[in-house]
Amino acid sequence: MVRRPRPAVRWLIYLIVRLIYRLRLRGLAHIPACGAALVVCNHVSFMDALVIGGASRRPLRFLMDKPIYDSPWLNWLFRLVGAIPVESERHDPGNVRRALQEVSRALGEGEVVMLFPEGRLTPDGEIHAFRRGLELILARDPVPVIPAGLSGLWGSWTSHCHGPALSGRPRRFRARVALHFGEPLSPGRATRRVLEERVRALKAEADQWTQPAGVGALERR
After folding, report:
1. Nearest alpha-carbon partner for 116 in 150, 78, 71, 88
2. What phi and psi values does residue 207 have, to the nearest 5 degrees?
3. Which CATH architecture group holds 6-219?
4. Is 90 exposed, middle or buried, given 0-12, 13-18 or 19+ CB atoms closer than 10 A?
5. What are 16-52's pLDDT values in tens digits?
6. Which of 65, 99, 107, 116 is 20 to 30 A from 215, comparing alpha carbons?
7. Contact partners, residue 132, CB within 8 Å, separation at least 6
8. CA 51, CA 172: separation in Å to the nearest integer?
9. Mean pLDDT across the chain
10. Contact (CB, 8 A) for 182 and 27
11. Phi, psi at residue 188, to the nearest 5°?
12. CA 16 to CA 47: how far, in whole Å?
């Protein structure tokens, strides 16, 4: 039921992202034209899923925190694009299992699912250790994994740079944002360690455009 409007919504999100940011994309061809796949990326801000989902040439299902998913203002959008809410076992026993089942169903139907293996927004702008949820997904559904590195959103009001995300007001407009996709990895090669290394390398490449000498420091003010 949600599938038919999702391509149109993706294009709308892409246009909005292009309006807000100076967006540079690399490696989009690494997202397969058909078939199931996972996309994994570092997690910088609450805009990450919109940037990646809008940039992808295929609609993406993505995992997101349930409190954000339940937002009275945005829940309709998250439902429309097929977001998969995840809550901690402490707050909702069995929720993680249900979320993983939904991921498995999506992959079984040939969809692309995106997740942030760090499990939370970065508190300091750096990439933190990937969690084991990725391996649980691949053990059940061995699909190709496309790593991605995102740069340029640290320092925005949707990141934790200046305090809790979304607690302040927008600080920048038309900031440089870069998203680089890497070559797909087979399920057998897509370990947490290897994927973390690939994502770090892709982010470092993206950083070279978003933070050039003499420009990055000025844009972060």
Report:
1. 150
2. -60, -30
3. 3-Layer(aba) Sandwich (3.40)
4. exposed
5. 999 999 999 999 999 999 999 999 999 999 899 989 9
6. 116
7. 192
8. 16
9. 88
10. yes
11. -65, -25
12. 11
pTM greater than 0.85:
yes
Using CB atoms within 10 Å of the CB of residue 10, give its burial: 0 to 12 exposed, 13 to 18 middle, 19+ buried.
buried
Q: Pairing between strand 60-65 and 176-181?
A: unpaired
Q: Determine the Cα–Cα distance for residues 33 and 180; give it in Å rounded to an integer.
A: 17
Cα→Cα distances 44→1, 80, 177, 179, 208, Å: 31, 23, 11, 12, 17
Q: Which two tokens stand for residue 74?
A: 């945005």
What would the pLDDT profile of 70-121 be if each residue is shown by its tens digit? 888 778 888 888 899 988 766 666 888 899 999 999 999 999 999 999 988 9
Coil, strand, or helix at residue 147?
A: strand
Domain ranges of the chain: 6-219
Query: In a 3-state reduction of DSSP, which class is residue 21?
Result: coil
Q: Which residues contact 54 (CB under 8 A, 6 or more apart)?
A: 10, 11, 13, 14, 15, 16, 17
Among 54, 60, 25, CA closest to 180: 25
- Least Cα distance to 138 among 212, 191, 204 occurs for 191
